[in-house]
Amino acid sequence: MAETNYTLVIGDKNLSSWSLRPWIALKVCGIPFVEERIRLRQPDTRAEIMRHCPSGKVPALKTRTGVVWDSLAILEYLAEHHAEHHLWPHDREARAAARCISAEMHSGFVTLRNDMSMELLARLSCPPISDTLETDIIRIVAIWHDARSCFGKGGPFLFGAFSNADAMFVPVATRFRTYGVDLSRFGDDGRVQAYAETLLALPAMAEWTEGAKEEVRARAASPA
Question: For 7-85, which CATH superfamily applies?
């Protein structure tokens, strides 16, 4: 591996949507890093995370000078320190929009996150669509459609080229696949589904998925 300034502390790849966000940004940009995984939902999970990060949560990016925690803060840090990768769009209006929808994803969509928790490798029945879950999905469809229509003409991602906004929404695409969500029921004309498939087809997603499979196999062989 190339020399790196970073260690990214993450949780289980099958479960940790917040870990996936900075991990995939690092991978897509080709920024070298060391990966350190902590198994979630164990009696010592918080204590193990606290060895790396004061929040007691993953992910955390360990640099040569300190620790950056919280997915969106890590993405902001990467954008500042690796400007050559243009993790925020160059255009001012596009950049503002990308930050708005990333912040909205970061702080919102609680029903979606609770009712459709990330289980990357599973294929599950869609839960009952409550009014609040329907509102969340309709809003995500609108975000993706509007970004692609207004800013995405130069490439297959929300703002053309891959950006932090895409990294923030990758776990949502995995949820829609896990629960078999028919996005046409929520206003998609096909373009939103195509975007979700673009995210899921990223080579970095194949690598993350294989890592999740390896973790599951290892734990089945040695559950303790």
Answer: Glutaredoxin (3.40.30.10)
